[in-house]
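User: Before I run my own analysis I want an independent prediction to cross-check against. Here's the chain; please return only the structure tokens and, at the end, one sentence I can use as a sanity check.
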Amino acid sequence: MVQSIIDLGEKEDRILNIVKAMYGLKNKSQAVAFIAGKYEDAFLEPELNPEFVVKLNEIKKEKGLKFNSVSDLRKHIEKNA
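Assistant: Structure tokens:
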């Protein structure tokens, strides 16, 4: 665990107290960790789930039908419906 001494303004301190109270956290360190986690989810690129990568690779290997136009695709769909 890394310990840091940070200077907060009055507004930021109030925000940490609100987050702490809203989510039932024990201390401001947990509030900072919670906010950092929310930031990560919202703004940083998440790693791809390994199972998802495997599924994408399987889809890439599948052979598909090629159509020259949307009307050709529509005909194919109507014929097989």
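Sanity check: The two ends are 60 Å apart (CA to CA).
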